[in-house]
Design a protein that fits this description.
The chain has one domain: Alpha-Beta Plaits, CATH 3.30.70. It contains 3 helices and 4 strands, in the order βαββαβα. Helix content is about 30%, strand content about 35%. By secondary structure, the chain is an alpha+beta fold. The chain is globular and about 50 Å long. It has a 4-stranded antiparallel sheet with strand order 2-3-1-4.
């Protein structure tokens, strides 16, 4: 299943979050989670990641490692095709 992980951070947490991002090599996902894409707001206030996994627990654990510096909004998402199938039924 595909998930959209939107993040935001308070100005006071920017430096800590940036340092952790650099030290981890870009926040790599754990086994069982594939990072499809990540985009970051140019002003450093947040961004989002698209992740694909059959293990939502692994995804939640990955996200949980960042909750001290980021506010996260984690949601399953549907493609156009999937949405069309859901609406047609």
């Amino acid at each position: 299943m595909v998930f959209l992980v939107k993040y935001s951070l308070a100005p006071a947490a920017v430096r800590t979050a940036q340092e952790r991002f650099v030290s981890t090599g870009g926040a790599p996902p754990p086994p069982g989670v594939r990072k499809v894409a990540s985009y970051h707001y140019a002003d450093g206030s947040g961004g989002y990641t698209v992740a694909d996994t059959d293990d939502p627990v692994a995804l939640a654990r990955w996200c949980n490692q960042w909750t001290d510096v980021l506010e996260l909004d984690l949601r399953p998402v549907l493609s156009d095709e999937q949405l069309g199938q859901m609406l047609a039924s």
